[in-house]
Amino acid sequence: MRGLCFVGSVLGALAGALLLSGCAATGIPGDQPVLRAKDQVMPALVHIQPVQEVFAQGRREQRPIVGSGFIISPEGYVVTNEHVAGRSGYVRCVLYDRREMDAEVIGTDRYTDIAVLKLQTEGEALPYVRMGESAALQAGQTVLAMGSPLGLSRSVSRGIISVPDRHIPDHGTMTSPYNNWIQTDAAINQGNSGGPLVNLRGEVIGVNARIIGGADNIGFAIPIDIAKEVVDALIADGHVSRSWIGVTLQEMRRRTDDPGQRGVVIGGVDPMSPAQEAGVLPGDILLTVDGQAVDARFEEDLPAVRKRIADITPGSAVTIQLLRGGAEIDLEVETMALADLRGVELAFAEWGFTAAEVTPEIARRAQLPAPRGVLVSGVQPGGPAANSGLQHGDIVLEIDEEPVENMRDFEEMYADRIETGQRLVLFDVKSGPLMRYVLIDQSAVAGAPQPGMEDLPPEENGLMSPELNGGLDGLE
After folding, report:
1. Is residue 342 a part of any domain in this protein?
2. What residue ranges in 213-291 does DSSP mark as E strands?
3. Which residue, 305, 105, 134, is CA-closest to 207?
4. 221 and 304 fall within a common domain
5. What Cα–Cα distance (Å) separates residue 329 from each residue in 141, 273, 406?
6. Whose CA is closest to 143, among 162, 158, 163, 165?
7. Can 83 be counted among the known catalytic residues?
């Protein structure tokens, strides 16, 4: 029996070898296609070490992080994530051959989490990737996730596309209004952010960016078709120009269970927005934009509709068709340029808080007639601002009855009062819908944080993020 078992094992091994040989002959992916794809991309892989300016609990800090990226041109342009390179005053890159180079941040786009760097190459031509297409991706395709997980540079993991068009709701500052995501089970960890997701042809088809904390084998990449548009705009202009009309869109399933009903639900209209001025109302059904039909039956259909509006040249007059009360109506809307989500942020150490510019978007949310003042972005526990009752989210509109028009005004007033040693400084503050006074006592010594309190990393740097089914994380 032992002999029979042995023979059977040999025959089984021979059959297995023939089967594997047949697989290779018929082109079924094995190790060789994976190795070829890896070899085409690896020379262009970049290990990124930015030093980010971080504002947390009323203080400004310099915080080194680790991320990934990939070279897209012989001139040394590098694609990575905004949450890796954004707010970085200094970026150091390590190439595949272990050479180190400084890089300049060319531009960032928070709405898609894409950033472009330029390596300081002194004219040297560098290896670069080929970018593929993401529109026709299918679940089950083999992909490679490459980068620096947990700081381990030049790493490669293998998996498949789980879902090519996963919708992820916005959470806090982590937004993706204009794209769905490629979901993959290829191992992605912190440090992979900005690295390439690669198909077996050696083409980059996504930019690694997100994971769900506490879940295994669930990672997300930005589709390369979206990334390419953003990258081209950042290289050409340093920013991405988009239109905005001020509506919140919802899928039709929120309004009706009739699968034949086409259009997109207007869930809300922002005050003082172009849509409000044109007469758009919550509950309207958007049918067309400049004659082009729009439809969003499911959540994953919404990004394409938002992008259709965003792609219009800012300042253009567009005709939208709405369904209201069973009747179709046409309205003309003049679009506005979409404002940045975040303005300049500074620390005011002697008063114990940090503040950010009031962008048009912040002004609209605060229902201010125009952007003015400064937004309190963080308050240091035990400092003069905290002791006076100043709170995160307050908007300082006046100091000692002098209007604060912008950040520059605030800086000048702050410097003047520090220099003169004025003991009491009166703030006129907007707190939500209410106005109130806050009196800063400059003679108070800023105290240390209370025992047990720690300076938490902000959501923007990806180290801590809002929870979604265990936590949706950015991935430095």
Report:
1. no
2. 219-223, 243-244, 247-250, 264-269, 285-289
3. 134
4. no
5. 45, 19, 41
6. 158
7. yes
Q: Of 340, 353, 355, 351, which Cα lies nearest the Cα of 409?
A: 355
Beta strands in 368-412 (DSSP E): 374-379, 395-399, 402-403
Average pLDDT, the chain: 85
pLDDT-derived band at 476, boundaries 50, 70, 90:
low
Query: Do residues 231 and 250 share a domain?
Result: no
Residue 17: inside a domain:
no
- For 468, the domain range is 29-240+456-476
275 located within any domain:
yes
Q: CATH code at 250?
A: 2.30.42.10
218 with 86, same domain: the answer is: yes
Of the listed 134, 193, 243, 377, which one is catalytic? 193
Query: Considering the domain boundaries, does residue 2 fall inside one?
Result: no
Residue 459 phi, psi dihedral angles, 5° rounding: -60, -35
Least confident stretch, 241-255, 301-315, 330-344, 397-411: 330-344
Q: Which position has the higher pLDDT, 158 or 474?
A: 158
Q: Pick the catalytic residue: 47, 68, 83, 153? A: 83
Residue 221 sits in the same domain as residue 86? yes
From 113, 165, 284, 394, active-site residue: 113
User: Higher model confidence: residue 174 or residue 247?
Assistant: 247
Residues 156 and 207 in one domain: yes
**162 has catalytic annotation:** no
Report the predicted TM-score, pTM, of the whole model to 2 decimal places.
Answer: 0.79
**Which of 50, 58, 129 is closest to 83 using CA atoms?**
50
Tell me how many degrees the CA angle 33-36-37 measures, rounded to the nearest 5: 85
Same domain, 46 and 176: yes
Q: Kindly report the number of other CB atoms within 10 A of residue 19's CB atom.
A: 10
Same-domain pairing of 311 and 249 = yes
Query: Is the same domain home to 292 and 354?
Result: no
